[in-house]
Write a structure and sequence with these properties.
Shape of chain B: globular
CATH topology of chain A: ABC transporter involved in vitamin B12 uptake, BtuC
Number of helices of chain B: 15
Number of strands of chain B: 0
Oligomer: heterodimer
Radius of gyration of chain B: 22 Å
Largest sheet of chain B: none
CATH class of chain A: Mainly Alpha
Distance between the termini of chain B: 10 Å
CATH architecture of chain A: Orthogonal Bundle
Radius of gyration of chain A: 20 Å
Largest sheet of chain A: 2 strands, antiparallel
CATH class of chain B: Mainly Alpha
Chain lengths: 324, 369
C-alpha cells in the first residue's frame, strides 16, 4: 500500500514535469487566440527556443542567458507571425504552419553548422541548466506519512521554470480578466470594430498579444532543453505545442480550466510512461499508445459538442480591415 | 488601381515567382551565414535532381507524392476548407492498401489484388477525411483543429497496429510482413526497358500516371461538372448553396471525402510502389508539403504539377546535399519549404503594392492607363 502511494506520488510529480511546457504554451495560446490570432505555431516557437536556449547555454555556460536567447528567438518568430497575419492580413493557419516547418528545418541546419553533432547541441552539465530546487526540510519530511511524501516527492525538487509555469497561470488570469489591457484584449478577439471605434489600435493590441505568447513559448522551449532535458535534440517539441493547443480548447480559452486540461494531459503522459510494459491485475496489459491518443481524441469529442461546448473567440482567424 | 485590375499573368505568374524568389533569397542568406556558398549549394541540388544518373526518376517519384497531397489540399480549398490532415489521411490510405493485400495476397492472383488495393487506398483516405468533414458540417468543430488531431490519432493507430497485431512475426521493427511476390505497381524503368529503352533504375512507378490522371480528374470535377461548381459556390458562400437548393453540409462532406481519397492515394506510390509492406512514417511530411504545393500552384492542377515538380526536385536535390557538404543537409529543404509556405501562403500579397505601383507607372506613358 505504502509502495502504491509512493508510486502515485511519483506519477503526480512526473505529471507536473510533463505538464510544464504544456501550461506555458497553453497560456501563450490563450493570449494570442483571445486577441483573435490563431496560433498553431506554439510548436515551432517552442522548438526553436529550445534550440536557442540550449545553444546559448552551451556557448556561454549560463542557463539564464539561455532563457534570454530562447525568449528572444521565440518572440522573433511571433513577430513574423504578426507581420504576416496582422500587418499583411495573411492566413493565420498557413503562417503558423510555415513557422512550424521552418523551425523543424532551421534548428537542425543551424545545429549542424554550430556544433556538428547531427543537429543536437552539446550535453549541458549541471551548471548550464536550471536544476531542481530542493525545498528546506524535504529530506526530513520523508518520515512524515502522507503529507511528508507529498512535500518531498511532489512539491519539492522542481526547477525554477516549473514554478514560473504555475505562476504564469495566475498572472494570465489576472491580466486577462482583471486589467484594462485584458478587457481590451478580449474585446479585440470578439469585436475588434468596437475596440477600434473606442480609439484603441487593433493591430497594436494584437501585436502585444503575440509578443506575450512569444515570451511564454520561449520559456516553454527553454524548459525542454535546459531544465527538463540536458541539451537540444532534434524534434524535441514532439507535438507538445499541439497538445497545448488542444488543452487550451479543452479549457475553453480560460486559464484555470486550461491549466487543469494540461495537468490531465500531462497525467496521461506520465501514466503511460509508468505503465509501459506493466501487467495490471485483472485488466492485464494496457497499450500505452491508446493512453497517449486520449488527449487528441477527447479534444475532438469536446469540439464536436458531445461533452459541453467549446466556442472560440468570435473574431478568431479574421484579419481586421478598417472600414473606409 | 487595385489587385483585381492587374492582368492575370501578373497575379498567377509574376507574384508566385516573386514569392518563390523571396523564399529562396532568405534561404540563400541563411546558407551564406552558415558559411557555405548558396550558389554552389543550388548547383548541387539541381544536378542531384535532374542531371545525375536516375536523378530525374527519383525527382518524379517524389513529385508523385506531392501531386496527390497537393490536389487533396486544393479540392478542400475550393470549398474553403483547410485540410491539414493529409498526413493522417495518407497513413490511413496506406493502412487500407496493407489490409487488402495482407488479407488477399495468398488467395487472389497478384494483378487482382493490386487492382483492389488502389480503391482501398482512396476509400480509407476518404473515410479519414470525411469524419472531420462531418464534424465541421454537422457539429461545427473547426476543421483545422480536427484534422490536426486526426493526424495524431492516425499516427497512434499506425503505431498500435504495426507494433501489434499487424507486426510481422519474428520482426523487431514496427512493420507488416512483405507483400507476396508480384504485388506492386509496375516500375517505369522496367516497363521502358521492356519496350527497348534503356533507363536507369529509379522507384518511379505507375502511381505517377495515376497522379496525372487524378490531376485531369480534379480539373474536370472542379471546372466542368455541376458538383464542382457547387463545391466552389459553397466555398464562396454557403447561403448561395442553400438558395441553389443544396445542403452545404453535404457538399463539405463530399469535398472532404474527395480530398481524403486523394491524400490516401499518396500511399500507392510509397507502399505499393516501393516498400511492398506497410511501414511507420512512410508519409514523412508529404501531407504537410501538399499545403505548400497547393498554395504555390494556386489550387489549379497545372500549377500543382509544376509546384510538385519543384518540391520533388528540392527533395531529391536536397538528398544530394548530404553527400556534398559537411554542414548542410536535407533538413535545409525543410527550411526552404517553411519559407516558401510563409512567402507564397501567409505573405502572398507582400509584393502586391509594389507590383501595382510599378505596373501603373509603366502603363501611363503609353496613354492607355
Amino acid at each position: 500500500m505504502a509502495d502504491l502511494w509512493l508510486q502515485f506520488a511519483l506519477t503526480i510529480d512526473a505529471t507536473l514535469r510533463v505538464a510544464t511546457p504544456l501550461i506555458l504554451c497553453a497560456m501563450a495560446g490563450l493570449f494570442s487566440e483571445r486577441s483573435g490570432i490563431i496560433d498553431i505555431s506554439l510548436e515551432g516557437k517552442m522548438l526553436m527556443s529550445a534550440f536557442a536556449a540550449a545553444s546559448m547555454a552551451a556557448l556561454t555556460g549560463s542557463p539564464l542567458l539561455g532563457l534570454a536567447g530562447g525568449i528572444l528567438v521565440s518572440v522573433m518568430l511571433s513577430l513574423i507571425h504578426g507581420f504576416a497575419c496582422i500587418t499583411h492580413k495573411g492566413n493565420q493557419v498557413i503562417s503558423g504552419l510555415a513557422i512550424n516547418i521552418l523551425a523543424s528545418g532551421l534548428t537542425v541546419t543551424l545545429g549542424i553548422a554550430l556544433f556538428a553533432q547531427g543537429g543536437q547541441t552539446p550535453f549541458l552539465n549541471k551548471s548550464e541548466r536550471f536544476t531542481d530546487i530542493v525545498l528546506p526540510f524535504a529530506e526530513q519530511a520523508e518520515h512524515v506519512p502522507v503529507l511528508g511524501t507529498i512535500y518531498k516527492e511532489i512539491i519539492s525538487g522542481h526547477n525554477l521554470l516549473v514554478w514560473v509555469a504555475l505562476f504564469s497561470v495566475i498572472v494570465t488570469g489576472y491580466v486577462v480578466f482583471r486589467t484594462t489591457f485584458g478587457l481590451r484584449l478580449r474585446a479585440v478577439g470578439e469585436k475588434p470594430e468596437a475596440v477600434d471605434s473606442a480609439g484603441v489600435s487593433v493591430s497594436g493590441l494584437r501585436f502585444q498579444a503575440v509578443i506575450i505568447a512569444g515570451v511564454l513559448c520561449g520559456i516553454a522551449g527553454t524548459y525542454l532543453s535546459t531544465a527538463h532535458g540536458a541539451g537540444f535534440i532534434r524534434e524535441m517539441a514532439a507535438g507538445k505545442g499541439y497538445i497545448a493547443l488542444a488543452a487550451l480548447i479543452f479549457g475553453k480559452w480560460r486559464p484555470v480550466p486550461a491549466l487543469l486540461a494540461c495537468l490531465m494531459f500531462g497525467f496521461m503522459d506520465a501514466l503511460a510512461a509508468r505503465l509501459q510494459g506493466v501487467e495490471i491485475p485483472v485488466i492485464g496489459h494496457i497499450s500505452t499508445d491508446l493512453i497517449l491518443v486520449l488527449p487528441y481524441l477527447l479534444t475532438v469529442i469536446l469540439l464536436a459538442g458531445f461533452i459541453g461546448k467549446a466556442s472560440p473567440p468570435r473574431a478568431i482567424g479574421v484579419p481586421y480591415i478598417k472600414e473606409r | 488601381m487595385n489587385a483585381s485590375s492587374l492582368p492575370r499573368w501578373i497575379d498567377i505568374g509574376l507574384l508566385p515567382v516573386l514569392n518563390l524568389m523571396a523564399a529562396l533569397t532568405v534561404a540563400g542568406v541563411i546558407i551564406a551565414i552558415i558559411g557555405e556558398n548558396p550558389f554552389v549549394a543550388m548547383g548541387v541540388m539541381i544536378k542531384g535532381a535532374f542531371v545525375y544518373d536516375g536523378a530525374l526518376g527519383y525527382t518524379l517519384f517524389y513529385t508523385t507524392n506531392f501531386i496527390f497531397t497537393g490536389l487533396a489540399v486544393a479540392v478542400a480549398f475550393h470549398a474553403m476548407l483547410f485540410n491539414i490532415g493529409g498526413e493522417g489521411q495518407a497513413m490511413i490510405g496506406g493502412l487500407g492498401v496493407g489490409l487488402v493485400v495482407l488479407f488477399l495476397d495468398s488467395v487472389l492472383p497478384p494483378l487482382l489484388v493490386v487492382i483492389l488495393a488502389v480503391p482501398a487506398a482512396a476509400a480509407f483516405g476518404a473515410v479519414w477525411g470525411v469524419i472531420p468533414g462531418w464534424l465541421q458540417a454537422r457539429r461545427g468543430s473547426h476543421i483545422v483543429i480536427t484534422t490536426i488531431m486526426f493526424n495524431f490519432i492516425a499516427s497512434s493507430i499506425m503505431v498500435w497496429l504495426l507494433a501489434g497485431m499487424l507486426m510481422a512475426p519474428g520482426q523487431m521493427s514496427p512493420e507488416t510482413r512483405s507483400f507476396a511476390d508480384g504485388i506492386n505497381l509496375p516500375l517505369v524503368y522496367e516497363v521502358l526497358q521492356m519496350v527497348g529503352f534503356s533507363v536507369s533504375r529509379s522507384p518511379l512507378n505507375l502511381s505517377f500516371v495515376i497522379a496525372l490522371l487524378a490531376c485531369f480528374g480534379v480539373w474536370y470535377l472542379i471546372w466542368r461538372t455541376k458538383l464542382g461548381y457547387i463545391i466552389r459556390a459553397t466555398g464562396h458562400s454557403e447561403r448561395a448553396t442553400i438558395y441553389a437548393g443544396h445542403d452545404p453540409a453535404k457538399i463539405i462532406m463530399i469535398a472532404m471525402a474527395i480530398s481524403g481519397a486523394l491524400a490516401g492515394m499518396m500511399s500507392l506510390n510509397e507502399i505499393l510502389g516501393v516498400q511492398q509492406r506497410v511501414i511507420l512514417n512512410f508519409t514523412s511530411g508529404y501531407g504537410f508539403t501538399g499545403i505548400a504545393v497547393a498554395l504555390m500552384g494556386r489550387n489549379h492542377p497545372i500549377g500543382i504539377v509544376l509546384a510538385s515538380l519543384l518540391f520533388g526536385a528540392l527533395y531529391q536535390g536536397g538528398a544530394e546535399l548530404d553527400f556534398e557538404f559537411q554542414t548542410i543537409t536535407r533538413e535545409m529543404v525543410l527550411m526552404i519549404q517553411g519559407l516558401i509556405i510563409l512567402f507564397s501562403g501567409a505573405l502572398a500579397y507582400l509584393f502586391m503594392p509594389a507590383v501595382i505601383r510599378v505596373y501603373s507607372s509603366l502603363r501611363k506613358p503609353t496613354g492607355s492607363g
